[in-house]
Write a structure and sequence with these properties.
The chain has about 180 residues and is mainly α. It is about 45% helix and about 10% strand. The chain has 6 helices and 6 strands, in the order αββααααββββα. A hairpin with a 6-residue loop joins strand 4 and strand 5. Helix 2 packs across helix 6 and helix 3 crosses helix 5. It is elongated and about 70 Å long. The chain starts with 5 loop residues before the first helix and ends with a helix.
Length: about 180
């Protein structure tokens, strides 16, 4: 067995500290972009696309945004989340993860089974609760201690939310009415 020499141990310690320092600088850079309202995700949320001219800006997806508007209208008309999901499934409208796949994105939803391509209560619920649809950037919703570790959801008060960063799909008035109904 080979003994680790003192200079090897020192080199390993230095390399580990250097990697940790770089990681902190990258995280800090991402946080600064988020606080400026720049989108840093790999995939835009359903209803939006990344702007071809500026990848940190979102633009309305003309097809998916109509589905988002319809979800808000159906809920406001008194139709529940499970029924909304059933309506969308019956009409053959692809769920967000399937829509991204059909659009050519290499998106993989970790929260669903491999073969599910349908709308669920949870998906409808998430859309109805997202401020993204009124033009507010919501980011830093979870934290990951290590690169390959599990992400831990944060309380909404700890999210980074920047108002008016992109075009709204839903009016502020409709948003407020839906939030009241959700309560």
């Amino acid at each position: 067995p080979r003994c680790i020499r003192h200079d090897d141990a020192a080199k390993n310690l230095f390399n580990a500290q250097y990697a940790k320092d770089i990681s902190q600088k990258v995280k800090s850079s991402f946080r600064a972009k988020q606080k400026r309202g720049e989108f840093i995700g790999a995939f835009a949320c359903y209803g939006y696309l990344k702007d071809a001219q500026n990848r940190n800006h979102l633009v309305v997806d003309p097809v998916a945004s109509k589905v988002v508007q319809r979800i808000f209208s159906l809920f406001e008309d008194g139709i529940g989340k499970i029924r909304i999901a059933k309506i969308l499934n019956e009409e053959g409208i692809p769920c967000p993860s399937e829509y991204k796949r059909l659009m050519g994105d290499r998106y993989r939803n970790c929260n669903k089974l491999e073969e599910t391509t349908y709308w669920t209560y949870t998906t409808v619920h998430r859309i109805l609760n997202s401020e993204m649809y009124i033009g507010n950037m919501e980011q830093a919703r979870s934290d990951r201690a290590q690169l390959h570790g599990m992400a831990k959801k944060k309380d909404k008060v700890d999210w980074i939310i920047v108002e008016g960063t992109h075009e709204a799909i839903i009016s502020g008035e409709q948003w407020a009415r839906v939030q009241t109904l959700l309560k």
